[in-house]
Write a structure and sequence with these properties.
Layout: H1 17-28, E1 40-45, E2 48-53, H2 67-86, E3 89-95, E4 104-113, H3 118-126, H4 146-155, E5 160-163, H5 166-184, H6 187-195, E6 197-198, E7 208-209, H7 217-229, H8 233-246, E8 249-255, H9 260-279, E9 283-286, H10 289-292, H11 294-304, E10 309-317, H12 330-333, E11 334-338
Helix pairs in contact: 1-2, 2-3, 2-9, 3-9, 4-9, 5-8, 5-11, 6-7
């Protein structure tokens, strides 16, 4: 099942709030995630949708701290709020300050009717068109002013976006190559990746089909075995070294701290950037390995002159059109829907903000902490910090 454009469906404007939220989840599911793992589940109660991290879809080798999992959920939240605004509803958002045993990350509530904006509509229209492009990108230059516009998008969420300049490229390319070589030399990394690698005819609605890498049906059929048992560390490292040097726009997105709220904000900001780039016809792909190793992450930070903590590094450019990767259905990710009347409890509880952690927080179960008040009543979706 490839991505279905939810615009082909009819918004149930006169239905109860729970059914309207269920419809809006079709847009949330189009968010990007590492290995297309789609690590989210949802619950709906009247006018509120609760967003959960799905630990069963975590990537303990590629994403040991669960940072990219949380970022994926942040991107899904932005899609949901943009879709609500397009259909005439403001939303409020509560993000939790640290991990909970049940995986709850945040809650989005439908609020009063409101009109969308031209800026928000451009992002919304890009949601079903956004793709990760794992193929080579061509040599066309991005539009003038693009990077400055994307930097502004990231700043709206309290996140830094920095372009890797030409004098910094050589050092960054060496870091990328080292990270790739070490990752692909690991049998555990290859086994995990093989578990999310699909043939072109797979009936699975997640993971990465061979066509996402430009593969024929025959090559895609054997790719899981090749990934698991071959050791193309040198080839992978050299390929990404070249792509790092040749990228017309190489970007690093960073946050001031490294805890759950920052990860979620990074996901929201990244999706804003991706949607703005998509609206201009550009694709993105990622250099994830250097960010997952603390020593290489620090080297990336120093190489680009950043003082904050890098959360994702990616390239933007023009390229051949790529097919959408599969998506699970709303029914498969919606754990519960309840159209009961609205509860009277407040959306958020007030507690002191947590101290930022110096490194990633594991997804291991722990007692559920209270949440902090980060409610936003804004016509255009944003996260408050």
């Amino acid at each position: 099942m490839s991505q279905e454009n939810p615009a082909n469906r009819v918004f149930p404007a006169r239905a109860p709030a729970a059914e309207r939220l269920r419809f809006l989840l079709h847009y949330a599911l189009l968010a990007p995630s590492r290995h297309n793992a789609q690590p989210w589940t949802f619950e709906i109660e009247d006018d509120e949708v609760r967003v959960y991290a799905d630990a069963s879809r975590a990537l303990p080798v590629a994403d040991p701290d669960g940072r990219q999992l949380v970022m994926a959920c942040g991107a899904a939240i932005l899609n949901l709020r943009l879709a609500a605004l397009h259909h005439g509803y403001a939303t409020s958002l509560e993000l939790l300050s640290t991990h909970r045993r049940d995986g709850l990350l945040g809650r989005v509530r439908l609020e009063e009717r409101c009109a969308s904006t031209e800026d928000a509509e451009e992002l919304f229209q890009a949601i079903p068109r956004r793709r990760t492009n794992r193929l080579p990108l061509d040599g066309r230059e991005p539009p003038d002013g693009l990077i400055a516009a994307l930097v502004r998008e990231a700043r709206r969420e309290g996140v830094s976006l920095r372009a890797v300049e030409e004098p910094q490229r050589r050092a960054v390319s060496e870091i990328v190559a080292e990270a790739d070589h070490d990752a692909w030399s690991s049998g555990r990394f290859r086994a995990e990746l093989a578990g999310w690698t699909r043939s072109n005819s797979s009936a699975r609605h997640d993971g990465m089909p061979g066509y996402a890498h430009g593969m024929s049906d025959a090559a895609a059929f054997v790719r899981p075995l090749v990934v698991r048992f071959a050791t193309p560390a040198r080839e992978e490292a050299e390929r990404d070294r070249r792509r790092t040097l040749a990228s017309k726009a190489l970007l690093v997105l960073s946050t001031p701290a490294d805890s759950l709220p920052e990860w979620a904000a990074a996901g929201v900001a990244l999706q804003r950037v991706l949607l703005r780039a998509t609206a201009l016809g550009l694709y993105a792909s990622y250099f994830a390995q250097p960010i997952e190793r603390s020593d290489l992450r620090r080297r990336v930070r120093d190489a680009v002159g950043e003082t904050w903590l890098p959360q994702v590094m990616f390239r933007l450019g023009y390229g051949l059109d790529v097919r959408a990767t599969p998506r699970r259905s709303v029914d498969s990710v919606l754990r519960r829907i309840d159209a009961s009347p609205r509860r009277v409890d407040a959306l958020a509880l007030r507690t002191p903000a947590p101290r930022p952690a110096s490194s990633g927080v594991p997804l291991a179960p722990r007692p559920a902490p209270p949440v902090r008040d980060v409610v936003a009543h804004a016509h255009e979706p944003r996260v408050l910090h």
